[in-house]
């Protein structure tokens, strides 16, 4: 019969079940990354709506992971895509390869390619992680997969908060132990005095 083991297990459960939780309920609660964090890319537009990207392929050439595919094309007379002679007809970033080094952003002469602080990059398949131009040119804020109820600023230190609450608990426990010790020594000295 494994009764002692069951009782030990239950004692452990009851000892911990009411303790303050040390986990964060992500994604309901999250901390924003610092502004320098390199996350998902976007392709920017000029204020008049034209694409900043001129299809020069310098970003693809700078990428050490061969994660970018650009196929440039000439702007035709009439409605144009970019203010330059050329634009990116095809633009893809393969997030299975990308190492988020930011060299592509450094190489871009028109500041068309930017990196955001969004880090939730997931897809239903390997093909789903190859982001196309339609996904990279964002005219709306990036939609997150799950809603967030509480968001802390980057400098918020969750770990420090937990340590502070833990040391508070320890201080209460320590004071209680010191009180117990004093009571014991008083009782002992009382006994000693009665014996002498
Ligand atoms: S961040 Fe680095 S690895 Fe990713 S696409 Fe840009 S250059 Fe390539
Ligand atoms: S994102 Fe920048 S570097 Fe890349 S093709 Fe467009 S303009 Fe050139």
List the helices and strands and how they pair.
Elements: H1 3-17, E1 29-31, E2 41-43, H2 58-62, E3 68-74, E4 86-94, H3 103-107, E5 113-115, E6 130-131, H4 133-136, E7 150-152, H5 158-195
The structure holds iron/sulfur cluster (SF4) (2 copies).
SSE string? HEEHEEHEEHEH
CATH A-level architecture of the largest domain = 2-Layer Sandwich
Q: Class of the largest domain, according to the CATH hierarchy? A: Alpha Beta
The strand order across the widest sheet is 3-4-6
Query: What structural category characterises the helix and strand content?
Result: alpha+beta
Bound molecules: iron/sulfur cluster
- Overall tally of structural domains: 2
**Helical amount among residues, as a percent range?**
25-40%
Q: What does this protein look like?
A:
The protein is an alpha+beta fold and 196 residues long. The chain folds into two domains: 30-140, Alpha-Beta Plaits (2-Layer Sandwich), CATH 3.30.70.3270; 157-196. 34% of the residues lie in helices and 15% in strands. The protein has five helices and seven strands, in the order αββαββαββαβα. The strands form three sheets. Strands 3-4-6 form a three-stranded antiparallel β-sheet. It has a two-stranded parallel sheet with strand order 1-7. Strands 2-5 form a two-stranded antiparallel ribbon. Residues 53-59, 70, 88, 107-108, 110, 112-113 line the site of one iron/sulfur cluster (SF4).
């Amino acid at each position: 019969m494994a009764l002692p083991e069951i009782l030990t297990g239950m004692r452990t459960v009851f000892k911990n079940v009411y303790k303050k939780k040390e986990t964060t309920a992500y994604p309901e609660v999250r901390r924003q990354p610092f502004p320098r964090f390199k996350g998902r890319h976007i392709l920017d537009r000029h204020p008049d709506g034209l694409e900043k990207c001129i299809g020069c392929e310098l970003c693809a050439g700078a990428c050490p992971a061969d994660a970018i595919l650009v196929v440039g094309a000439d702007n035709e007379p009439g409605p144009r895509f970019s203010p330059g002679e050329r634009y990116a007809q095809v633009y893809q970033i393969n997030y299975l390869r990308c190492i988020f080094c930011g060299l592509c952003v450094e190489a871009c002469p028109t500041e068309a390619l930017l990196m955001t602080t969004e880090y939730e990059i997931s897809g239903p398949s390997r093909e789903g992680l190859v982001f196309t131009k339609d996904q990279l040119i964002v005219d709306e804020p990036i939609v997150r997969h799950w809603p967030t109820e509480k968001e802390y600023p980057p400098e918020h230190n969750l770990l420090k908060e937990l340590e502070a609450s833990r040391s508070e608990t320890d201080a209460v426990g320590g004071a209680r132990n010191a009180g117990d010790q004093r009571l014991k020594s008083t009782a002992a000295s009382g006994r000693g005095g009665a014996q002498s």
